[in-house]
Write a structure and sequence with these properties.
Layout (H helix, E strand, L loop, with lengths): L3 E12 L3 E4 H4 L7 H8 L3 E4 L6 H16 L8 E5 L10 H9 L5 E5 L5 H13 L7 E8 L9 H4 L4 E13 L7 E9 L7 E3 L12 E3 L1 H23 L8 E4 L4 H11 L10 H4 L6 H11 L8 E8 L3 E8 L1
Parallel strand pairs: 4-5, 4-6, 11-12
Antiparallel strand pairs: 1-7, 2-3, 6-7, 8-13, 9-10, 12-13
Helix pairs in contact: 3-4, 7-8
Length: about 325
């Protein structure tokens, strides 16, 4: 049988800023309550980056933990892909700043912008390097300072988001071309630019010349999320050659507990297979999947050899899913 090269996750790491902001604290600055937030979203608290903490700082902290878990150092890294909606600067790419701060050698480094779907998109992009022998040690990072895009007078959005970063190390390993192989096994990526007005930021360098604030039509996003993500999940599972119900763990984008439950129910995944961190982290956009994966690995639930299903939907609208064996 012909051998195939797979992109295998060999290390996972996460980082959350120290500052914890509870629902009760938010209720002091915007008209809301702990009960209102929990009932609608499942969120209890979120993290807020310090004023001198940039997205690259969060990314570096997560990357160091992932490299340690993989038994690698920054000197091994030849590819860095950072998924972020909140870059340090308009340019250069946050990935190149991470490369410098980590002390990595000259290699490939760039950002991916697909908002909350960014990490799934970034995994697919990195797979194009690693599974083709063009990278030997890749860092794929989701890093966000979403609280800096908040309009703190809008209780419908400012309570939903938090800051953080998660990272994985991808390395090439030979497989048999079977679903029992370790590594990235299947993807489905989607985008529909006609739905931009459902979730966007109302500013940018080439339009308003300002950073802008996040705007969202929550009910519409919820409706599209459950339907669209479910389709992508089935497509990714078909691409991987596995039935959806065979996955060991469902690690979704942590946007809203009701969306997590709605998607899991629609595609037939048991509740006990869902990794949920939304109560503690809120929505950390591109960082949410690797943060949830890191938590599952570190608390011993997610084990090597298990089949994982990742999914997300974000502004654009973009969405997608990935099946991998750890």
């Amino acid at each position: 049988m012909t051998k195939v090269l797979r992109s295998v996750v060999t290390g996972v790491g996460g980082y959350l800023p120290e500052n914890v902001v509870t629902n009760a604290e938010l209720a002091k600055v915007v008209e809301t309550s702990d009960e209102w937030i929990r009932e609608r979203t499942g969120i209890r608290e979120r993290r807020k980056a310090a004023d001198d903490e940039a997205a690259s700082d969060l990314a570096v902290a997560a990357a160091r933990r992932a490299l340690e878990a993989a038994g690698r150092t920054a000197l091994d890294v030849d590819l860095i892909v950072v998924a972020t909606t909140t870059p340090d600067l308009t340019f250069p790419a946050t990935a190149t700043i991470v490369q410098r701060k980590l002390g990595c050698p000259v290699g490939v480094a760039f950002d991916v912008q697909a908002v909350c779907s960014g990490f799934v998109y970034a995994l697919s992009v990195a797979d194009g390097f690693v599974a083709r022998g063009r990278a030997k040690c890749a860092l794929v990072i989701g890093a966000e300072t979403m609280t800096r895009l908040m309009d703190w007078t809008d209780r419908g959005t400012c309570v939903l988001f938090g800051d953080g970063a998660g990272a994985v190390v991808l390395e090439p390993q030979e497989g048999e071309g079977e679903v029992t192989d370790r590594g990235l096994l299947g993807f489905a990526l989607r985008a529909d630019g006609t739905k931009q007005d459902l979730l966007y930021v109302d500013g940018g360098p080439s339009t308003t010349g300002t950073r802008g604030f996040l705007r969202m039509q929550g009910n519409q996003v919820f409706r599209h999320a459950v339907v669209n993500i479910s389709e992508a999940i089935h497509a990714a599972a078909e691409d991987a050659g596995v039935p959806v119900e065979s996955v060991d763990w469902f690690i979704p984008h942590q946007a809203n507990q009701r969306i997590l439950e709605g998607v899991a129910k629609r595609v037939g995944i048991a509740e006990e297979k869902v990794i949920s961190t939304v109560a503690q982290h809120a929505n950390t956009s591109a960082a949410s999947i690797p943060l949830a994966l890191d938590q599952g690995v570190r608390d011993g639930r997610v084990k090597p050899g298990e089949l994982l299903l990742l999914e997300a939907m974000g502004g654009g609208l973009t969405w997608g899913a990935c099946v991998l064996r750890l």
